Amino acid sequence: MSILVYIQNVKGQIKKQSFELTAYAWQLAQKMGGSITGIVIGEIDNEHLQQLGKYGMTKVIKVGDAVFNTRFNGVYTRIIEQVAKQEAARVVLFPDNNLGKALGPRLSVRLKAGFVPEVMALPVSYDPFIVTKRAFTGRALANVQVNSSRKILSLMINAFGINENPVELSFQEFQPQLDRTTSRLQLVNRLVYEGGVNLVDADIVVSGGRGMKGGENWAMLEELAGTLGAALACSRPVADDGWRSPDEHVGQTGKIIAPKIYFAVGISGAIQHVAGVSGSKCLVAINSDPDAPIFDVADYGIVGDAFKVIPELTAVFKAHLASH
Ligand SMILES: Cc1cc2nc3c(=O)[nH]c(=O)nc-3n(C[C@H](O)[C@H](O)[C@H](O)COP(=O)(O)OP(=O)(O)OC[C@H]3O[C@@H](n4cnc5c(N)ncnc54)[C@H](O)[C@@H]3O)c2cc1C
Asked: Ligand 1 center to residue 237 CA distance, Å?
């Protein structure tokens, strides 16, 4: 019996969420028993995976053939299904991102397992198995009971935190039984935007809205983000108007993020925007309108003109960082 953790392998590096999932699995194992096994697909060195032992994972199953470096959801689902059966996995954990949203439901069909996305915390009860999930784009929480013997959860990013529970880690190669190794679709070409800090993983995010007046004014947000090692984000109209890449759009119809600090600059705080950032540990709003709804959800607010406040804030952070 095991708890199976999907380890996200991006070009031979592990995504930080894999550590959080492992720490979560460790807590589950304390209550449910069993060991924590990871599955990683695609080429990756053991030295990167070794870190997972720090958080309680005892075994990593590697499906390391280069043919699997590109993710095809149908193929990955079949691989995870076979590993889950071999390991008698009672729980399978995914990160709640595009990957978890693609693989979780598919695996749920193949394993006849209940799937709960957007899980926020450890189960409130283990028998029956009840977990708390985000509902209505973060306006509510729902407790969901999973009645199937196998359970699949996708865990909200940064919802749980990372605790160390060091153990000995071993590796095992796995040869999946597949009738084909590619999907009916074939990836022909891919354009990847390099550079900057990954928005979903970022601890600090600097986000701009229509109050920034135009894409040409983003240099000041870029400077603040560069000073703090932050990622950049934006509201939907900013992306719709082509001021910034749609990749940076956060909210109900964009990315859902949960950084430690979120700076909302010139953003009114519409419900659809807040839905994507309400998991932020600390929300700092900068807005010239004291009645802007963003202040209702902000931990700290600065009422003022962003064009004056942001350069001053950046100068203060630069001075502070230089003196430490
Ligand atoms: C179905 C649906 C889905 C949606 N999904 C999303 C989504 O995923 N994400 C999203 O963001 N939106 C989404 N929206 C749009 C959302 O409703 C809002 O229209 C949008 O979030 C507003 O963007 P904004 O805050 O940048 O602009 P505005 O609402 O125009 O706000 C601009 C703010 O800037 C302030 N401001 C102006 N000048 C300055 C200055 N010099 N200094 C400081 N502040 C200033 C103003 O006081 C104002 O509060 C969705 C809408 C619908 C209907």
From this structure: 7
